[in-house]
Each structure stands twice: as structure tokens, then as C-alpha cells.
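User: Sequence for Ribosomal RNA large subunit methyltransferase H below. C-alpha cells please.
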Amino acid sequence: MNITIITVGKLKEKYLIQGINEYLKRLTAYAKVEIIELPDEKAPENLSESEMEQIKQKEGERILGKISDDTHVIALAIEGKMKSSEQLAADLDKLATYGKSKIAFIIGGSLGLSNEVMKRANDTLSFSKMTFPHQLMRLVLVEQVYRAYRINRGEPYHK
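Assistant: C-alpha cells for Ribosomal RNA large subunit methyltransferase H:
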């Protein structure tokens, strides 16, 4: 399984980088995981609705440029589907069973994802109705992907 995490914005916080790297190291036993960081657009305060859409559009074009036609895309969005860890594990297992070996998780910038990215997504995922920094979502996502593989292999992992 090839998993790509496409994310907008640079990760600077050392503690998040360390946590993500730990889970990426653990995941090497199960899948090839790549993180693609794309530059974010500067988004000053007090943007108009159309300016926000323009920023999401530019970021969305960069995101879509990294996705091949045969990739199953899961967009992280607050309005996405909420799933348990077991449900995410079952979804990943089903994708592998049906020959979907390329999966891309998309984490947008501070303004979210463009309509074009949401249309390209095969599925959506929400970890909560709360808003989280997109940098923190990277850590949460790689941990949940790792947990999903442990669940699917019947291997113990703290609950």
C-alpha cells in the first residue's frame, strides 16, 4: 500500500515533527508513506469571501497537481464523515482488498480545501466537529493510520 499525505503549509513545531517521524518509522512495516508539503498562500486577516476562495483555489491546484488518476483520495474536512478507528481500519483494508494500492489523504491549509479538491475526493474524513490546526492533524492522521494497520493485523495497541 502506498499512502501519500498531501498537506498545505510547512511544519515548524519540533514536537510535532518528532511525533510524526515516530509514527512514520512504525508504519514502514506496513506501508510506504510519503508526506508532500505544499506551500500555503499568505492569508491576512479580514479577507473577503472571494479572496478566501482565490487562496483555496491556488492551494487546491497545487494539491490536485500531486494526485494521479488512479489514486483513491480521502479529504480531511470538518464536514467529512466521522469514523471510529475500527471503521477507518476496515476502509483501508477494503481498499487494499479491491486493488486500490494508492491512497492520498489531503489536509488543506488554514482556510480549508477548494471545491475542486472536494469534488476529486472519493471520501471525506473528519476527526471531530472541532477545528484543529492543520499541523496537528498530520500527527493525528499518521497515528490513526498506524492504529488502523495494527487493528487490521490483529496486533495489540493501546486503546
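The first helix runs from residue 14 to 27.
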